[in-house]
């Protein structure tokens, strides 16, 4: 018997992918791949040794786990990878990064169908 919750999660991911994505470029060094991504955000809160809480907001990209393939090999996000997002005449460059010891990605669902990749804006360039 099929897992109904997994079937529901698959249907929801298909709807997200079909109706809520844009094309971005994911790069690690010279290796790049074009993927469909949903834009999101995460707010991280960290307290220092004095109890002062600092909030940091990350621009997140939700990408299907099966779509992140570099040089023919399935891969997971790594700190320092880059995501390039073009909007009209401008390309925004984001580095895969998270504050402190937080992981740079997490799975967006219990079945590991999509990755939530945390990033930080590092550059804005004119689109060639």
Could you describe the 3D structure shown?
This protein is globular. The mean pLDDT is 92. With 128 residues, it is mainly beta. It has one helix at residues 4-19; strands at 22-28, 31-47, 53-64, 69-70, 73-74, 82-87, 90-96, 105-107, 114-126. The protein is built from one helix and nine strands. It has one domain (4-126). The protein starts with a helix and ends with a strand. The protein has a six-stranded antiparallel beta barrel with strand order 1-2-3-9-7-6.
Label the structural class: mainly beta
Overall residue-averaged pLDDT value? 92
Uncertain stretches of 5 or more adjacent residues: none
Task: Note the beta-strand portion.
Answer: over 45%
Ends apart, CA distance between termini: 52 Å
Question: Based on DSSP secondary structure assignment, what is the total number of beta strands?
Answer: 9
| Form type | globular
Taking the sheet with the most strands, its summary is: 6 strands, antiparallel, barrel
Tally of separate domains: 1
> Largest sheet, order of strands side by side?
1-2-3-9-7-6
Compute the gyration radius: what is it? Answer: 16 Å
Helix content: 10-25%
The count of helical stretches stands at 1
Query: What's the order of the H and E elements?
Result: HEEEEEEEEE
């Amino acid at each position: 018997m099929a897992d109904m919750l997994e079937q529901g999660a698959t249907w929801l991911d298909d709807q997200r992918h079909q109706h809520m994505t844009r094309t971005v470029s994911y790069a690690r060094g010279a290796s790049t791949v074009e993927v469909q991504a949903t834009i999101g955000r995460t707010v991280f809160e960290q307290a220092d040794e004095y109890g002062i809480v600092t909030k940091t907001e990350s621009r997140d990209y939700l990408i299907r786990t099966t779509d992140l393939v570099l040089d023919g090999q399935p891969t997971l996000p790594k700190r320092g990878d880059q995501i390039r997002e073009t909007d009209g005449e401008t390309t925004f460059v984001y580095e895969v990064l998270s504050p402190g010891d937080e992981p740079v990605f997490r799975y967006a669902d219990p079945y590991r169908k999509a990755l939530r990749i945390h990033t930080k804006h590092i550059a804005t360039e004119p689109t060639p």
